[in-house]
Amino acid sequence: MEAFKSIANPLSSFFLICILLLFANAAYGKTHYHDFVIQATPVKRLCKTHNAITVNGEFPGPTLEVNNGDTLVVKVVNRARYNVTIHWHGVRQMKTGWADGPEFVTQCPIRPGKSYTYRYTIQGQEGTLWWHAHSSWLRATVYGALIIHPKEGENYPFTKPKRETPILLGEWWDTNPIDVVRRATRTGAAPNVSDAYTINGQPGDLYKCSKQDTTIVHVDSGETNLIRVVNAGLNQQLFFTVANHKFTVVGADASYVKPFTTSVLMLGPGQTTDVLIKTDQPASRYYMAARAYASAQGAPFDNTTTTAILEYKTASCSSNCVKINPVFPSLPAYNDTATATAFTTKFRSPRKVELPTEIDENLFFTVGLGLQNCPRGARSRNCQGPNGTRFAASMNNVSFVLPSNFSLLQAHHQGLPGVFSTDFPAVPPVKFDYTGNVSRSLWQPIRGTKLYKLRYGAKVQVVLQGTSIFTAENHPIHLHGYDFYIIAEGFGNFNPKRDTAKFNLVDPPLRNTASVPANGWTVIRFVADNPGVWLMHCHLDVHITWGLAMAFVVENGVSELESLEGPPVDFPVC
């Protein structure tokens, strides 16, 4: 009997350890290791081969799949000729701001020949995010999906899909996109628009030399499938639809939403939308298509249409399906603001949310374009904007300037003087008719590296007010390091006496990128619970190039759990 006990005790201890390890794994998640090699790769599109900058030779780059609670460790090796950083778009980065990625904001760039390892944990997020370069215009080709599944053993709050398919919408230039932005920066003019849109890297049937490589999504009849749509384009909001099929929207920006049905999506650059699609149509081939939502009146845009094919693979279709021309969908008009607005205002959280009500910081930020007068002594070739000016953009009349010798987070963490100031205005310096006929005296912003300081735990409300300076347009405003509740949006000038009544304080959607309507406004709320320096900017890259950005400095809280971690040992130096 004693001998049996001596055997049983080690066995029971072994099983107990196994059970504890299983629980620990479920509680803390797994760690995923990846290597990203940034390199020039020959990519042929529109009949021409370009040396595009890619990750691991793939365009688009690799899809990363994790579970809520998992940790990612991604070593980025730069073998390209440009500086690079990688941003994990929408990841909260709780206390790990050094891994956020925007160049000269949370890190210095990874120089050619150097490397940096990003380490961060997914906390409380499920759905579709994505990653992309955050240095110059490299994200034109350096991007990929980041898919976050529920924790192991947990389920989606909707019908389990038969298949899951990421759909990445992109923009393609038939030249080097870095040359495009450099030329625009040199001349002060608007950059050339893209030559094509893409779905999973392919332009599709409507472009030259592209039909043979069109993306095909295979399905069977009678399925419910999950499509994860990402607008990875640089400068264009996009409408997306599938011929003869409806979508049930179930998520956006890695947050679940109250399901609703629609036949068309509108995504600004940076936004993601998860939709269920039922394959309940006659077995055939159906085009998926995306084209511009162009809200800026008179501004040039890429008016082409990208397509992929939803192809039913069933017995009744197997012999002759490939010969059938796909059914083409109807798409909204390029300037169909009514359809865009009807879509964005349908989003709700699945249930009542805990919303900050007592507001500590009530902020009002104008967002829009501007024009800089030609600098004294500059040549006319450097001032090719309207009437001999240079294009600019600003928030609260401050055109954001990135530092070049230190990152903002490094300067904040080390207390380095002279890198930035904390006098970003809480309200516009001059009150005016924001969406009316704005005086030319207000068209020229000031340049500066101005940040706004928030104490840890502050409850923040921001009114994002679009302006009609030069031209009004829809601005996708992205906040790093945070999700926020969109509690209202509308057209014209925000009026607190009238528009506060429109606030949804029950079930507003949780997003990381908000579409501020053309000639309109959006109101967001969040709690400043993530210490660090966090960029807020327009996700039209042409606008961030012109200065449509600002950053929050969120101070540490009282405990170590409420404080920014120290920088990693391999942190890039400027």
TrEMBL record:
<dbReference type="InterPro" id="IPR002355">
    <property type="entry name" value="Cu_oxidase_Cu_BS"/>
</dbReference>
<dbReference type="InterPro" id="IPR008972">
    <property type="entry name" value="Cupredoxin"/>
</dbReference>
<dbReference type="GO" id="GO:0048046">
    <property type="term" value="C:apoplast"/>
</dbReference>
<dbReference type="Pfam" id="PF07732">
    <property type="entry name" value="Cu-oxidase_3"/>
</dbReference>
<dbReference type="InterPro" id="IPR011706">
    <property type="entry name" value="Cu-oxidase_C"/>
</dbReference>
<dbReference type="InterPro" id="IPR001117">
    <property type="entry name" value="Cu-oxidase_2nd"/>
</dbReference>
<comment type="function">
    <text>Lignin degradation and detoxification of lignin-derived products.</text>
</comment>
<keyword id="KW-0186">Copper</keyword>
<dbReference type="Pfam" id="PF00394">
    <property type="entry name" value="Cu-oxidase"/>
</dbReference>
<dbReference type="InterPro" id="IPR034285">
    <property type="entry name" value="CuRO_2_LCC"/>
</dbReference>
<feature type="domain" description="Plastocyanin-like">
    <location>
        <begin position="164"/>
        <end position="314"/>
    </location>
</feature>
<protein>
    <recommendedName>
        <fullName>Laccase</fullName>
        <ecNumber>1.10.3.2</ecNumber>
    </recommendedName>
</protein>
<dbReference type="InterPro" id="IPR034289">
    <property type="entry name" value="CuRO_3_LCC"/>
</dbReference>
<comment type="similarity">
    <text>Belongs to the multicopper oxidase family.</text>
</comment>
<keyword id="KW-0560">Oxidoreductase</keyword>
<keyword id="KW-0479">Metal-binding</keyword>
<dbReference type="InterPro" id="IPR045087">
    <property type="entry name" value="Cu-oxidase_fam"/>
</dbReference>
<dbReference type="InterPro" id="IPR017761">
    <property type="entry name" value="Laccase"/>
</dbReference>
<keyword id="KW-0677">Repeat</keyword>
<keyword id="KW-0964">Secreted</keyword>
<dbReference type="GO" id="GO:0046274">
    <property type="term" value="P:lignin catabolic process"/>
</dbReference>
<feature type="domain" description="Plastocyanin-like">
    <location>
        <begin position="38"/>
        <end position="152"/>
    </location>
</feature>
<feature type="domain" description="Plastocyanin-like">
    <location>
        <begin position="424"/>
        <end position="556"/>
    </location>
</feature>
<dbReference type="GO" id="GO:0005507">
    <property type="term" value="F:copper ion binding"/>
</dbReference>
<dbReference type="InterPro" id="IPR033138">
    <property type="entry name" value="Cu_oxidase_CS"/>
</dbReference>
<keyword id="KW-0732">Signal</keyword>
<dbReference type="Pfam" id="PF07731">
    <property type="entry name" value="Cu-oxidase_2"/>
</dbReference>
<keyword id="KW-0325">Glycoprotein</keyword>
<keyword id="KW-0052">Apoplast</keyword>
<feature type="signal peptide">
    <location>
        <begin position="1"/>
        <end position="29"/>
    </location>
</feature>
<dbReference type="InterPro" id="IPR034288">
    <property type="entry name" value="CuRO_1_LCC"/>
</dbReference>
<dbReference type="InterPro" id="IPR011707">
    <property type="entry name" value="Cu-oxidase-like_N"/>
</dbReference>
<dbReference type="GO" id="GO:0052716">
    <property type="term" value="F:hydroquinone:oxygen oxidoreductase activity"/>
</dbReference>
<keyword id="KW-0439">Lignin degradation</keyword>
